[in-house]
Design goal:
This protein is of the alpha+beta class. The protein has helices at 17-45, 48-73, 89-117, 124-146, 152-181, 186-213, 223-231, 266-281, and strands at 7-9, 236-248, 251-260, 285-291. The protein has a four-stranded mixed beta sheet with strand order 1-4-3-2. The longest helix has 30 residues, at 152-181. The chain is elongated and about 80 Å long.
């Protein structure tokens, strides 16, 4: 088997991380300030929806604080100890914040069930006024965060804020219904409904973060399609031992072995592969190993030939 030194190329996509950290800090201040107001108003009005939303916002404050810290740490450059840098911390933070969100949903559900079993009076007008202000505040915070919600970390923080927004909306609706009809069960019922919505979104994000931590192929990419496209580059006979994984939301990595016709053509082949992977799949962190006479066991021999040089076969992870 003949080898030449493997070739490596790395370029990361940046979405103004400093601005992202500033947005998280502004959001943190707004959320914590309103949580204190809402908790006091909820206690005075006897509203489960307001108290639950205030507790939710306190956890959101913790989530936003963690997100802001991670946004700062993830900008640190690679080191001898962490050759990829600390970019993966955003995935860990997202997983933690999502688990925290599941705990909030459980607490809301328990409180709502207890309130259904033991109804208490609710001051509708107070609930409406406080929740309406909270709805506007959460709309502003969600807008600030949504403008740059590219990373797992930012998405997890946004998930918390969207949960607050829905909670405030539910509190407004509950206050209106209680004020005009006197039907108290609507307060905990809406809390359960909002909790179910938050639960669905949290589980979806948790699935994505676990997939990244398990070094899974990015969900928006097809490994077979990538392998077939790479095998279709002129001078490439086949591709094997192909791996694609996520380092962070802004960096996808790929490594693979290419069986080539002539090692002297490798610079041209490498340039073509880099252009293909970047332009078509958005992959820039690339490590490729050329080979000339290997017969790998982990290849897709059944895959159809790829139009181009007539020799393309697919790749196997």
């Amino acid at each position: 088997m003949s080898h030449s030194p493997s070739s490596h190329d790395h370029a990361a996509h940046h979405h103004h991380p400093a601005a992202r950290g500033t947005a998280l800090l502004w959001s943190l201040g707004l959320v914590l300030g309103y949580a204190a107001v809402e908790a006091g108003a909820g206690w005075m009005a006897g509203s489960m929806a307001l108290l639950g939303d205030a507790g939710h916002m306190l956890t959101d404050g913790a989530a936003l604080g963690l997100a802001a810290l991670v946004a700062r740490l993830s900008r640190r450059p690679p080191s001898l100890l962490h050759s990829y840098g600390l970019a993966r911390m955003e995935v860990l933070a997202a997983a933690f914040n999502t688990l925290l969100m599941l705990g909030v949903v459980a607490a809301i559900a328990v409180g709502a069930v207890l309130r259904l079993l033991h109804p208490e009076p609710v001051d509708g007008p107070v609930v409406i006024a406080v929740a309406a202000f909270g709805l506007l505040l959460n709309l502003v915070v969600a807008w600030v965060l949504a403008r740059d919600a590219h990373s797992f970390n930012q998405r997890a923080a946004l998930l918390h804020v969207l949960g607050d927004l829905l909670g405030s909306l539910a509190a407004v609706v509950a206050g209106v219904i209680v004020t005009f009809t006197g039907w108290m069960p609507i307060d905990p019922i809406l809390s359960l409904f909002i909790g179910a919505i938050i639960l669905f979104s949290s589980l979806r994000l948790l699935r994505e973060t676990v997939h990244v931590l398990m070094e899974g192929t990015p969900l928006n990419l097809d490994l077979r399609e990538i392998g077939e496209a790479m095998a279709g580059v002129g001078g490439v006979l086949s591709v094997h031992d192909l791996h694609v994984w996520t380092i962070s939301s802004e960096s996808v990595a790929l490594s693979g072995h290419l069986l080539v016709q002539d090692l002297r053509q490798w610079p041209q082949v490498l340039a073509a592969e880099r252009a293909l992977l970047d332009g078509r799949f958005g992959i820039r962190h690339i490590t490729l190993q050329p080979e000339t006479d290997v017969q790998p066991l982990r290849r897709w021999p059944q895959a159809p030939a790829v139009p181009g040089d007539g020799h393309g076969t697919a790749a196997s992870a």
